[in-house]
Amino acid sequence: MIKCEIDFSNTYSKFTIYDIKTVTEEDDIVDDAYQISLEDAQEIKSNAKLGDTIKIKFDVTKLDKTYVRRVKQLFQSKLKEASKSAILNVYQDKIGELIEGTVNRIEQDGNSYEVSFGKAQGFLRKNNKMPGDRFVVGERVLVHLSDVSDRSNPPSLVISRSSKEFVQKLLERAVPEIQEGIVTIKAIEREPGKRTKIFVDSTNPNIDPVGTCIGPESSRIRSVLNEIGSEKVDVVRFYMNKALQVVEAMKPAGVIGLTCPEDFFDANVHYEELELDRDYEYPKITVVVNNGNQGVAIGSGGVNVRLASRITHCTISVLQADDAIASGLKYLMISDIEKLIKGMNPEAAVEEETPVEEEEFVEEVNDEEVIPTTPEVAPVVEETPVVEEVKAEETPVVEEAAPAVDPVKAAKEETVAKAAETAKPVEEEKPVEHVEIKNKPRISLEELEQAISSKKGPSETRSYKKKWKKNEEEKSAAPSQASKVEAMPIYTEEELAEMEEDEDTAYDNYEDDLDLDQYDSDEYYDNN
């Protein structure tokens, strides 16, 4: 292996090259380019021994121009490789990610920018920036790093703002579920500055991938739109079936039908594998939309249908309903497509139908719980099919619902009536005498009011209640005066006088029982 040593002067204006050779026995020399015999070595250095290294001054003037040019090219290539490896060591982990740099210089054409990233630099040119990008020197720019290029000296970073990976990384940064792997980006197609379409799917059936990417009040997707300007982004759901993929990819246009090859509904055909073949030909699909919706389906300059064709790997053409009928186009409606997809997997169709039956069964059980558990109510449950026949005749449900409830009420009334019949014999054992009063009392209503108002004490004291209760019991024990022919006054004067005396004594007793001093003490209010 040839070795050399170069000594530079302090000002780096001059240098000296030394050829380094190893001292070897003359018979053992293999290449005199890096080996020298002991005799020749001792001529240069008298104390040289076997195995020592000898520095021999090299005369540069003996080199021709071809050799010098060759050395220069080799030196530059080695320097470029060393510079690239140094940059790779710094940005190796950032390839494929978003990095932020500073605009260092604007090219003369005004459409190219040199962006500095510290130890490296990159260039934003017309083909890797968006049409609306305008920057000034010193402005911070977010770009996607795809590779490190060695075409320039020193090597530069390959950056872009027009690639579809740029939008993909923006969405991944805005949606934590994508970083966690719950929501996945299946495919993405983009025309910079115009529109981007993204297929998303969810590994969790309880999470809506489209709603997750859009975010509450469009907060997540808005952070992406703020970076790409006026470009539109369509986030749509991914389906394994190719027909449903086309329907979703055509959004925001509403598709009413489309022509589909029979392979679209064959479970044994896997298009994700066929599309990897270079000779794969895109199937031709005609999409039918509502009248007047053809412009939305095609998009400005055909961008919508173009991106839909690329993301679904189909050649798509658009017709509105009247044109499709006029041309005699035979296509499948969306409802027919859904039926065919269910037919591809009968087990899934059975699973979807079973929850409906379970719901009906629960409703019947709830109805039975409302009905009283008596033998007479059992026929009511058997009459429920009559309600179903009425519904089949498309009669209003509200009008026919009332008769179904009446038998239940009748059953309840029967149970109450039976309970009343069982209670009747108990009441008949104690007959009640009903006496009809035909005559009027001699005392007037005004006199009665005056007598009541003339009471001096409160009428609801305890002592008054007890005495009044005794008077009532005595009166109830006495024979009824209403049975006599001649009318008698309600109360006699003697009775009224006795009542007034009772009231006076009750009022006096009430005042004696009250301890008015206790209300003036602080202890009473503290305790209460």
Descriptive overview:
This protein is an alpha+beta fold. Among the domains are: 60 residues, NusA, N-terminal domain (N Utilization Substance Protein A, Chain:P, domain 4, 2-Layer Sandwich), CATH 3.30.1480; 94 residues, OB fold (Dihydrolipoamide Acetyltransferase, E2P) (Beta Barrel); 50 residues, no CATH class; 76 residues, no CATH class. 44% of the residues lie in helices and 18% in strands. It contains 20 helices and 16 strands. The strands form 4 sheets. Strands 7-6-5-8-9 form a 5-stranded antiparallel beta sheet. A hairpin with a 6-residue loop joins β8 and β9. About 16% of the residues have low confidence.
Give me a quick take on this structure.
This protein is an alpha+beta fold and 528 residues long.
Total count of strands: 16
CATH C-level of the domain at 69-162: Mainly Beta
Instruction: From the alpha carbons, calculate the radius of gyration and give it in angstroms.
Output: 52 Å
Distance between the termini: 111 Å
Q: What is the CATH third-level topology name of the domain at 69-162?
A: OB fold (Dihydrolipoamide Acetyltransferase, E2P)
Please tell me the overall pLDDT. 75
The fourth-level CATH homologous superfamily of the domain at 69-162 is Nucleic acid-binding proteins
Derived from helix and strand composition plus strand pairing, the structural class reads: alpha+beta
Strand content: 15-25%
SSE blueprint and pairings:
Blueprint lengths: L2 E6 L6 E10 L10 E3 H7 L8 E5 L7 H27 L6 E9 L6 E4 L4 E4 L15 E10 L6 E5 L3 H11 L1 H5 L2 E9 L3 E8 L6 H6 L4 H10 L3 E6 L4 H8 L5 E4 L12 H4 L9 E6 L4 H5 L4 H10 L2 E6 H6 L5 E2 H11 L1 H25 L7 H5 L2 H8 L4 H32 L16 H9 L8 H16 L15 H21 L8 H6 L1
Helix pairs in contact: 3-6, 7-10, 18-19
